[in-house]
Amino acid sequence: MAMKLVKDYRFIxxxxxxxxxxxxxxxxxxxxxxxxxWPVLLAAHALVLVxxxxxxxxxSLAPENKFFRFLRHFYPILLYTGFYxxxxxxxxxxxxxxxxPFFIRLEERLFGCQxxxxxxxxxxxxxxxxxxxxxxxxxxVMIVGIGLTLFLxxxxxxxxxxxxxxxxxxxxxxxxxxxPVVGPRLFSRDLGGFHLLPDVLPPHVPEIPxxxxxxxFFKIMAIIYDIFESPGAAFPSSHVAVAICTLFFTYKYLxxxxxxxxxxxxxxxxxTVYGRYHYVVDVIGGAxxxxxxxxxxxxxxxxFGGQSTDKGE
Length: 313
Description:
- It is a single chain.
- The chain is mainly α.
- The protein has one domain (2-304).
- The protein is built from 13 helices and no strands.
């Protein structure tokens, strides 16, 4: 009976449904008094489980239906933002407070300073800010751009792409639930009700220079973070991990874009520190996550990925 229920599942479906189920069980058994809306979240997880299963079955039974065929390919992407935002509501279930003091002391021990504060003071110019914040914004362009290009060229390659990117995202999201780290923006203001005690604050926290604040991409990223940010999702950097993941697919399927994409990824890694979004350790963690998880996801996809139901592919 169980095998019949999942006979149309592919790797992407197993990991998505598995993530929804695991996080739902964590909410059910460990919400305590830290998750005020836990019944709502639990109901949402049940709804997603049923909804995703319905989409999979409908797409299998009626492959000519363009709407369900579209959802079959894109439903994981439609869930990313909700899963990400949810981590901010769940990251106090296992640890009270945030782990930023540990990361701040680690940065000081490794580098003798706080690189996330010093980097911008070295390049306090508008042109540098435009470059760095544009590189940070390019994260969204990478995910959508590489994805759409693959979707239009080869839907099997697109399914491979979504499966691998989703696997990396889900593992990062799980980590955020267990290891809440806000990032260097906590130096200058409270975020999500979290703040740093005086004993971990550096003697002087430099203000963001006016030329930097006047940059167009600085303002764009400020709007995005005001709307979508989830405090406590800094380690490992999913920006770095997923950007490297997209680069893997450029090297595999879009070879003409390799060099420019690689440069963009390197700039993005630097921009996470320049923009005070991440500690250097977060960047290293993101790179390690990609180095470990992308090969695992690639192997799992080849083993359990399944075939596209779209005709003519």
